[in-house]
């Protein structure tokens, strides 16, 4: 069995070569599902390190994007040995870039980090209408709705989603977090969201606080 | 002399003084309102009107009547849907609300860096353009027809829009200088935004660092060429360089990949007599000492950061713009909005080398409270005399 701390640190350091070498060697040794789940856990802890380094100002958005890709590649290597016994999800999030906005880099960073933290994420993509948010919330009944946008026009679109959730009687059943370049405390209040952030790692912590 | 002509001379002098390092009569105001804003403000349909630009004159004139600025607030879009549609563009597309945007796409594969470095122009023409512009992905004869149609549309729109705004510039007495003339990109931003994509480049700088650096070097002459305005050198011109990736990468990556070729671009344009106007996107406070190194009188339009620090470190050498948060225009009271303008003028205006502008373009009417916007512009017009 590999040294899980070394793996966690290598993910935290974004050392792609080291991570993939370790994981390939691990998979080649034909491990049990239980061992494989421990390795997945070590990878997730590595992502938490990435988040901490971002908070400290040592990593930046570009590093988070790469971290998301690294984690996806790591899980792909592990897939044959993880088995079907999915680890229990800590909660679920319906996520999308709001209507009128096509930008998805921030949304995708938040998605990969919240999946790494154990959330089930239903990603509706970009330019998502209020009705599409409402339909998905009805269908999967998530704890959290996450809305993203880069353009300032996204703020009105976010407000519209909150209003439509109200009309559908769903507003009180979910927590709403908004993220992206234009969001501020004041915008959050006007929109009627529960929280805002321009920091994906902080966004994940906010969601963890809601489901704990 | 007509009133408009006198006003135009007065406004032009404001910018000339700032660019010449003299203290102007008043802080000049250079606020451009986007085409999208203009269309919505006039109560027209955004998606429809962008295809029918002959009717824009009335739309533009309403801006001139209702918003105080020293440069013409109206302008046609850089992202005109006509030529992008004819080209089958994947890099500029319209959203459901009619807003043209730049989605994440890439036109160069990682294993093609060597070909790009060897001959960036050929690689762009032969490999990248047909991938980004799908209508060019055809036989050479058809491709030349598509190209001709697209650029006919591009120039038709540019010229008719230019004629409309020129008429309004003269009618309302706006300064012909102070605005943007041509656009180019920092070489690393070009490689990131247009060739490899924001996502891919973050992996590339780790996997193939030397190739990324070489690609930035290779494309620099093309970026310099793109940044030369179509007129003789002038201290009053503006080559617009919207900066993008630097705040999103680590300092050591900035030093290696971003700064050397970006500095070369601005330096060489300045050496030829063409000043640059940088849109300093996001927060560049980590790099403020680098910005100091750029040629004197480089115009720097800041989005976020510390205006006091910028004034202190850069304010004697460079020309500062921006910082006014447009989200405040949406969420604040009129009084709060005016107080913010006063606060920024108090910090940035002393000693000159300051032009009033917001922290980013105002792209839609629902991005701001219109009355707050008008109140702030009026406040600056009346209360920023030296």
TrEMBL record, chain A:
GO terms for molecular function: cobalamin binding; metal ion binding; methionine synthase activity. PANTHER family: METHIONINE SYNTHASE. Belongs to the methylamine corrinoid protein family. GO terms for biological process: homocysteine metabolic process; tetrahydrofolate metabolic process. This is Methanogenic corrinoid protein MtbC1. It comes from Geosporobacter subterraneus DSM 17957. The keyword Metal-binding applies. Residues 90-212 form the B12-binding domain. Residues 1-90 form the B12-binding N-terminal domain. Keywords: Cobalt, Metal-binding. One of its GO terms (cellular component) is cytosol.
From TrEMBL, chain B:
Gene3D superfamilies: 3.20.20.210. GO terms for molecular function: uroporphyrinogen decarboxylase activity. Residues 184-381 form the Uroporphyrinogen decarboxylase (URO-D) domain. It comes from the Bacteria. It holds the Pfam family URO-D. Signal peptide: none annotated. GO terms for biological process: porphyrin-containing compound biosynthetic process. This is Uroporphyrinogen decarboxylase (URO-D). It comes from Geosporobacter subterraneus DSM 17957.
């Amino acid at each position: 069995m590999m040294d899980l701390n070394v793996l966690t640190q290598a993910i935290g350091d974004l050392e792609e070569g080291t991570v993939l070498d370790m994981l390939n060697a691990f998979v080649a040794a034909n491990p049990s599902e239980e061992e494989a789940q421990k390795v997945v856990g070590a990878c997730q802890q590595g992502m938490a390190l990435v988040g901490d380094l971002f908070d400290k100002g040592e990593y930046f958005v570009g590093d988070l994007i790469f971290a998301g890709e690294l984690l996806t590649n790591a899980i792909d290597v592990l897939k044959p040995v993880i088995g079907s016994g999915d680890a229990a999800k800590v909660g679920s999030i319906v996520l999308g870039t709001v209507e009128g906005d096509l930008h998805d880099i921030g949304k995708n960073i938040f998605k990969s980090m919240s999946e790494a933290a154990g959330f089930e994420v239903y990603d509706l993509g970009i330019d998502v209408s209020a009705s599409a948010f409402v339909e998905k919330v009805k269908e999967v009944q998530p704890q959290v709705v996450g809305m993203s946008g880069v353009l300032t026009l996204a703020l009105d679109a976010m407000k519209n989603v909150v209003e439509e959730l109200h009309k559908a009687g769903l507003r009180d059943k979910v927590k709403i977090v908004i993220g992206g370049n234009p969001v501020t405390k004041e915008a959050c209040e006007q929109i009627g969201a529960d929280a805002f952030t321009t920091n994906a790692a902080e966004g994940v912590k906010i969601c963890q606080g809601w489901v704990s | 002399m007509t009133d408009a002509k006198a006003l135009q001379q007065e406004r032009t002098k404001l910018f000339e003084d700032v660019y010449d390092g003299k203290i102007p009569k008043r802080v000049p105001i250079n606020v451009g309102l986007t085409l999208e804003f203009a269309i919505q403000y006039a109560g027209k349909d955004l998606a429809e009107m962008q295809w029918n630009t002959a009717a824009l004159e009335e739309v533009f004139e309403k801006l001139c009547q209702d918003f105080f600025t020293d440069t013409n607030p109206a302008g046609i879009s850089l992202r005109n849907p006509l030529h992008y549609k004819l080209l089958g563009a994947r890099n500029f597309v319209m959203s459901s609300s009619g807003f043209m945007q730049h989605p994440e796409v890439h036109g160069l594969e990682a294993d093609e860096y060597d070909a790009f470095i060897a001959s960036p122009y050929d690689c762009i023409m032969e490999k990248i353009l047909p991938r980004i512009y799908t209508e060019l992905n055809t036989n050479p004869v058809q491709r030349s027809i598509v190209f001709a149609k697209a650029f006919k549309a591009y120039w038709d729109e540019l010229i008719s829009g230019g004629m409309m705004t020129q008429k309004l510039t003269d009618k309302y007495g706006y300064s012909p200088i102070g605005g943007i003339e041509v656009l180019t990109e920092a070489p690393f931003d070009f490689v990131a935004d247009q060739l490899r994509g924001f996502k891919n480049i973050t992996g590339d700088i780790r996997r193939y660092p030397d190739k990324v650096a070489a690609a930035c070097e290779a494309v620099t002459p093309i970026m310099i060429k793109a940044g030369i305005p179509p007129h003789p050198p002038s201290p009053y011109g503006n080559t617009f360089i919207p900066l993008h990736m630097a705040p999103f990468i680590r300092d050591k990556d900035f030093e290696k990949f971003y700064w050397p070729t970006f500095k070369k671009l601005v330096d060489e344009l300045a050496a030829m007599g063409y000043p640059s106007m940088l849109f300093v996107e996001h927060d560049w406070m980590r790099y403020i000492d680098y910005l100091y190194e750029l040629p004197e009188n480089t115009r720097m339009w800041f989005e976020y950061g510390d205006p006091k620090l910028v004034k202190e470190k850069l304010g004697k050498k460079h020309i500062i713009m921006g910082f006014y948060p447009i989200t405040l225009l949406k969420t604040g009271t009129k009084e709060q909005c005016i107080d913010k303008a006063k606060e920024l003028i108090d910090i940035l205006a002393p000693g000159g080398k300051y032009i009033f502008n917001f922290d980013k373009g105002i792209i839609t009417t629902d991005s701001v409270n219109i009355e707050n916007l008008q109140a702030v512009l009026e406040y600056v017009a009346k209360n920023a005399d030296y």
